Amino acid sequence: MSDDRICVGSIAGAWGVRGEVRLKSFCAEPTDIASYGPLFTKDGNRSFAVTLTRPVAGAIGARLSGISTKEEADALRGTELYVARDRLPGLPDDEFYHTDLIGLAVKDTGGAGLGTVIAVHNHGAGDLIEIRLTGKAAPLLLPFTQATVPTVDLARGVLIADLPEGLD
User: Fold this and answer.
1) Domains of the chain in sequence order
2) DSSP letters along the chain, please?
3) Is the pLDDT score of 2 beyond 50?
């Protein structure tokens, strides 16, 4: 995947019988997904204009250009949708796109290397960063808060983590 595109959502399956899809938005404001222009598949071979139709359980109902049957919509289940980075709004200094955090080196407040960010999760109560710890089999999940992650330096490729007592 090129660094000039960011995953903004995925297709959760068909909704109804006329080609509408359940669209899972990864945007801070879920309905913004339709405002960024055409959305592309990961390989870039397909693009879709998106028209939002209605809220559905855990997603948004949407029509995608070129999709008119339930079977076509079902065939897209699990497809990630990307947008060109330059179509997204700029962020304040204390906000980050998840994709920019993945791969950052993680150091403790003393400068010792801890590992690498391998994922960012949000299960509804705030972001969690998943860190592959150097020399450990199990990853570590930390809340992505100012208290736990006081410094993110994208230019240097480093994230500073202040581990809670007992985790160091």
Assistant:
1) 5-87 (2.40.30.60), 98-161 (2.30.30.240)
2) --TTEEEEEEEEEE-SSSS-EEEEE-SSSGGGGGGSS-EEETTSS-EE-EEEEEEETTEEEEEETT--SHHHHHHTTT-EEEEEGGGSPP--TT---HHHHTT-EEEETTS-EEEEEEEEEESSS-EEEEEEETT-SS-EEEE-STTT--EEETTTTEEEE-PPTT--
3) no
